[in-house]
Amino acid sequence: MDEKWNHFDEAGNAVMVDVSEKAVTVRTASAAGAIRVNAEVMDAVVHGNVKKGDVLGVARVAGIMAAKQAWSLIPMCHPLCIRKCAVDFETDEEKLEIRAISTVKVEEKTGVEMEALTAVTVALLTIYDMCKAIDRGMEITDVRLLAKTGGRSGDITYG
């Protein structure tokens, strides 16, 4: 079987990748995504008037908690001891868009791309959940990996 398909054994069965022989290195990953909202949601989030509370504060905590649980959500994802996880937001009132950015850091044998992507996705889902009474037409977009460091493939920045 082609070596790039490392989540399958010779018989085609799904397996967790064996990282026992890999070196422990410092690894980071950053991811981003956005949610498009209407003007009423943007105003309520920016001015703290959402009835369910501090939307971005709750979304930040949800994203951090989600990064720590990526292994339990994604099959074959290794449980990692996360050393740092940050989730930040940028609001663009003109474009009616809230952008989430996460950065995750570990000292491990495997990378943290899944954790960074999970943090962003759950943070955006939390914004949706807290604001859906105002706008059910919100759209989560552009979730992607921005960069990763460490490991065999080294440092990579994505477009």
UniProtKB/TrEMBL annotation:
<feature type="binding site">
    <location>
        <begin position="114"/>
        <end position="115"/>
    </location>
    <ligand>
        <name>substrate</name>
    </ligand>
</feature>
<dbReference type="InterPro" id="IPR050105">
    <property type="entry name" value="MoCo_biosynth_MoaA/MoaC"/>
</dbReference>
<dbReference type="InterPro" id="IPR047594">
    <property type="entry name" value="MoaC_bact/euk"/>
</dbReference>
<comment type="pathway">
    <text>Cofactor biosynthesis; molybdopterin biosynthesis.</text>
</comment>
<protein>
    <recommendedName>
        <fullName>Cyclic pyranopterin monophosphate synthase</fullName>
        <ecNumber>4.6.1.17</ecNumber>
    </recommendedName>
</protein>
<dbReference type="Pfam" id="PF01967">
    <property type="entry name" value="MoaC"/>
</dbReference>
<comment type="function">
    <text>Catalyzes the conversion of (8S)-3',8-cyclo-7,8-dihydroguanosine 5'-triphosphate to cyclic pyranopterin monophosphate (cPMP).</text>
</comment>
<dbReference type="InterPro" id="IPR023045">
    <property type="entry name" value="MoaC"/>
</dbReference>
<feature type="domain" description="Molybdopterin cofactor biosynthesis C (MoaC)">
    <location>
        <begin position="16"/>
        <end position="151"/>
    </location>
</feature>
<feature type="binding site">
    <location>
        <begin position="76"/>
        <end position="78"/>
    </location>
    <ligand>
        <name>substrate</name>
    </ligand>
</feature>
<comment type="similarity">
    <text>Belongs to the MoaC family.</text>
</comment>
<dbReference type="InterPro" id="IPR036522">
    <property type="entry name" value="MoaC_sf"/>
</dbReference>
<feature type="active site">
    <location>
        <position position="129"/>
    </location>
</feature>
<dbReference type="GO" id="GO:0061799">
    <property type="term" value="F:cyclic pyranopterin monophosphate synthase activity"/>
</dbReference>
<keyword id="KW-0501">Molybdenum cofactor biosynthesis</keyword>
<dbReference type="GO" id="GO:0006777">
    <property type="term" value="P:Mo-molybdopterin cofactor biosynthetic process"/>
</dbReference>
<comment type="subunit">
    <text>Homohexamer; trimer of dimers.</text>
</comment>
<dbReference type="InterPro" id="IPR002820">
    <property type="entry name" value="Mopterin_CF_biosynth-C_dom"/>
</dbReference>
<keyword id="KW-0456">Lyase</keyword>
